[in-house]
C-alpha cells in the first residue's frame, strides 16, 4: 500500500488565499458588512442541506465525469475536503430549474396540448436513477436545462462536454426503457449571467435510428459508461476497506469539474495533505 503523505512544504497564507473562496461580503458600513455576512451564511447553510447536495447515490449527471478519483471518492462516501467552492452557481441553477418547470407546465395549459413532460424520474441503470428535466412528446426529444456563464457556454458551442452528453443519453435511455419514443436528445444552454435570452443555445444529438432503437454509437458509449461505473465501484470498495487511498485512484484534472469536486483541495499540491489538488489553478468557472 502507498505510504501516507507527509505534510512537508506547507502552502503559504498568500497561496492559500489565492485559491480559497472569498468569504467576506461587503457593505456600506461596518454593520452592513456584518449583515451581508449573515445573509450569506443563511444561503450557504441552506445550500449545504439541499437534497441534491446530501444525496448518496450517483445519478446520470455524475456517471459521465471522466475523473475516476472524483467518482470513486463519491461512491466511497468520503468526507469533503473542498473549502474553495461557493454554492452560488448551483443555487442560481436550482432556482432557474424551478422556474423552467413552471414555464413548460404553463405552456401545456396555455396551448391545451400535453407536449412537455417535466421533472420525470427515469431509471437508465437500476442503481443510478435520476430526474430528467424535459421530454418533448411532439419532437420525441429529451432535453436538459443548463444555466451557464460565458466560459461554459463557449465550451458548449464548441462541442459536447462529455459528462453532459452522457447525462443526456442516459436520460434518453431512461425514457426509452419506459416505453416512450426518443429520437434525439438536446442540451438547452441558457445564458445565466446575460441580460437577455438571445444567447440561448441548443446542442442536439440523434438517439435512435429509423427503427426507434438506440443508435449503435449510443449503445457503445453507454456500455462503456456502465463498465466504468462498475470499475469505479470496485475502487470505492477498496477505499472503504482501507486498501487504497483516494490519492491512489487516477485523476483526470479539468478546471470546470475540479472546482465543484468535493475532494478538490488545491493546497494538497503543497502540503501533501488530504484531498486532490486537481489542476491547482482552477478558478470558479463562469
Tell me what you see in this structure:
The protein has 286 residues and is α+β, with helices and mostly antiparallel strands. It has a domain at 88-223. 43% of the residues lie in helices and 13% in strands. The chain contains 11 helices and 5 strands; from the N terminus they run ααααααβββααββααα. The protein has helices at residues 13-19, 30-48, 51-54, 60-63, 68-75, 88-111, 150-158, 162-177, 216-240, 255-258, 268-271, and strands at 116-122, 130-136, 141-148, 184-191, 201-206. The protein has a 5-stranded mixed beta sheet. A hairpin with a 7-residue loop joins β1 (116-122) and β2 (130-136). α5 (68-75) crosses α9. The longest helix has 25 residues, at 216-240. The model is unreliable at 1-21 (pLDDT under 50).
Question: Helix and strand layout, with pairings?
Answer:
Blueprint: H1 13-19, H2 30-48, H3 51-54, H4 60-63, H5 68-75, H6 88-111, E1 116-122, E2 130-136, E3 141-148, H7 150-158, H8 162-177, E4 184-191, E5 201-206, H9 216-240, H10 255-258, H11 268-271
Parallel strand pairs: 3-4
Antiparallel strand pairs: 1-2, 2-3, 4-5
Which terms would index this structure?
286 residues, five-stranded mixed β-sheet, 11 helices, 5 strands, 13% strand, disordered N terminus
Amino acid at each position: 500500500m502507498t505510504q501516507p503523505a507527509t505534510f512537508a512544504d506547507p502552502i503559504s497564507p498568500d497561496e492559500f488565499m489565492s485559491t480559497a473562496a472569498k468569504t467576506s461580503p461587503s457593505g456600506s458600513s461596518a454593520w452592513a458588512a456584518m449583515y451581508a455576512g449573515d445573509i450569506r451564511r443563511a444561503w450557504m447553510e441552506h445550500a449545504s442541506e439541499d437534497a441534491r447536495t446530501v444525496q448518496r447515490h450517483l445519478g446520470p449527471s455524475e456517471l459521465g465525469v471522466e475523473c475516476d478519483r472524483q467518482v470513486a471518492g463519491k461512491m466511497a462516501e468520503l468526507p469533503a475536503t473542498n473549502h474553495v467552492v461557493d454554492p452560488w452557481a448551483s443555487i442560481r441553477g436550482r432556482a432557474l430549474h424551478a422556474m423552467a418547470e413552471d414555464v413548460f407546465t404553463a405552456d401545456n395549459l396555455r396551448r391545451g396540448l400535453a407536449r412537455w413532460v417535466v421533472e420525470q424520474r427515469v431509471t437508465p441503470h437500476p442503481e443510478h436513477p435520476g430526474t430528467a428535466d424535459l421530454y418533448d412528446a411532439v419532437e420525441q426529444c429529451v432535453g436538459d436545462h443548463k444555466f451557464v456563464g460565458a466560459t461554459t457556454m463557449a465550451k458548449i458551442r464548441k462541442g459536447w462536454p462529455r459528462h453532459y452528453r452522457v447525462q443526456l443519453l442516459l436520460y434518453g435511455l431512461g425514457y426509452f426503457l419506459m416505453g416512450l419514443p426518443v429520437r434525439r436528445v438536446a442540451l438547452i444552454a441558457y445564458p445565466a449571467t446575460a441580460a437577455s435570452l438571445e444567447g440561448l443555445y441548443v446542442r442536439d444529438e440523434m438517439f435512435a435510428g429509423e427503427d426507434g432503437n438506440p443508435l449503435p454509437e449510443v449503445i457503445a458509449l453507454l456500455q462503456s459508461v456502465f463498465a466504468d461505473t462498475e470499475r469505479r465501484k470496485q475502487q470505492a470498495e477498496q477505499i472503504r476497506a482501507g486498501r487504497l487511498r483516494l490519492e491512489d485512484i487516477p485523476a483526470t484534472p479539468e478546471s470546470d469539474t475540479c472546482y465543484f469536486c468535493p475532494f478538490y483541495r488545491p493546497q494538497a499540491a503543497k502540503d501533501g495533505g488530504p484531498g486532490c489538488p486537481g489542476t491547482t489553478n482552477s478558478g470558479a468557472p463562469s
